[in-house]
Amino acid sequence: MLIRRAVLIDGTATDIRVDGQIADVAPGLAAAPGEAEFDASGGTVLPGLTDHHLHLRAAAAALHSVRVGPEHVRDKAELARVLAAAAPGDDGWIRGIGYHDSAAGPLDRDALDGVAPTTPVRIQHRSGVQWTLNTPALIRVGLAEHPTGILRSSDAGWALPPSEPALAEFSAQLCRYGVTGVTDATPDLGAGDITYLQQQMRQTVRCLAPGKRILHDDELDLEALVRWIRHSHSVGVPVALHCVTAAQLVVGLEAFRAAGRHPLDRLEHAAVVPDALLADLAASGLPVVTQPNFVAERGDQYLVDVPEAEHHELWRVATLLRAGVRVGLSTDAPFGDADPWAAMRAAVHRRTPSGAVLGADEKISPASALALFTGNRPGHAGRVEVGAPGDLCIMTTPPGETLAELDAATVAATVIGGEVVYERSAPAANADRSRAH
Question: Name one Pfam family in it (predicted).
Fold first, then answer.
């Protein structure tokens, strides 16, 4: 395919020939016989976006789940109304997502029975690692006598009923955002699970499993973690550690120091990075994949829950980059909004939902935010150049406007492997902009 009248992010006007890879980048390229053409009309052409950490099955399931976070539910009566209005899925369950105690207080099986007594209900905490089930749901999973109904994803002896997530629908949504590659961060996926995800998604899918481990503050065992990392490395598997607290980061860094490194090891989230750990983090050489979108989505709650003296430690980006840490950005969908452009804006502006600025020193430029959402690996930005993957995001706006707006609404088309997989509806007068010759 030949993309005409493209403008690169640095302002260079050019044409681009692309198939599985970018074959040519130069002005005035001549179309080959029968070659498809796309008129970018002076819009910016970017490397396809990569979401470096999300959860595909959960994000697809969330498209048809009930949102019960504090932005949607404010007390138990409202939670009861939301759940009563929800239609059970094909499996007979109601699935709630995004819960936090600030919505309607702490949940256990009794509290959930009080607002939803008859239909099996499972409510996922917004951390993504904890579920609360009501009594009908506990009966379904064989845990009728469980005292609290509060279960961690890592707990043994239970499993949610299998369901067929709307992966194709979620993939189409990502195409509208210009996302051409994703890294699934779900732990414990088998080879069959990974193959299935890769078959269902238009995007290139990479997976952290089997080398992903979620750390919990009450289960931090340094010696066991070191043994697991060493074993993973011995069979050629890189390791990704989920670190959201300072204690988890301390243990994670020490475990890597003791166990040694694989070139593709990484740290997920680093939601809290105290000043005292910056030097150790930089010295480790580990890339960090983080989610500043949570400042925009949950920042007001952080202002309440986190001591003011620690606000600057939350979801750091600029400080990490200045320290020489390789950084990749992601949305952590469905625990965060899947729109990478919203996450970029959050990294630039650091505004909470109420408009307060949280961590002003962690702001980065729009160009940096965009670059951190590209490339096959965190800290290795994608480029529009010969030999690069044939995955592109074509914008309706020139570079200055693209960077000023960072808006998914300005994505004109998404190209994966040299094929247009999404094209924004155009006025009738421009309906022939993409055509075959």
Answer: Amidohydro_3
CA angle at residue 302 from 179 to 335, to 5 degrees?
Answer: 30
Residues 286, 329: Cα–Cα separation, whole Å: 14
- As beta bridge partners, residue 133 has 122
| CA 156/CA 149 separation, integer angstroms | 14
Concatenating the DSSP letter of every residue in 328-376 gives EE---TTSS-S-HHHHHHHHHH-B-TTS-BS-GGG---HHHHHHTTBSS
Best CA proximity match to 393, nearest among 434, 430, 351, 422? 422
Per-residue pLDDT tens over the stretch 406-431 = 999 999 999 999 999 999 985 433 33
Residue whose tokens read 């011995």:
234
- Whether 177 has a pLDDT exceeding 70, the answer reads yes
DSSP strand pairing (22-26 vs 13-18): antiparallel
Q: How much of the chain exceeds pLDDT 90, in percent?
A: 85
Q: Which helix (H) or strand (E) holds 22?
A: strand 22-26
* Domains observed in the chain: 1-48+384-428 (2.30.40.10), 65-152 (3.10.310.70), 167-381 (3.20.20.140)
**pLDDT for the residue numbered 162:** 56
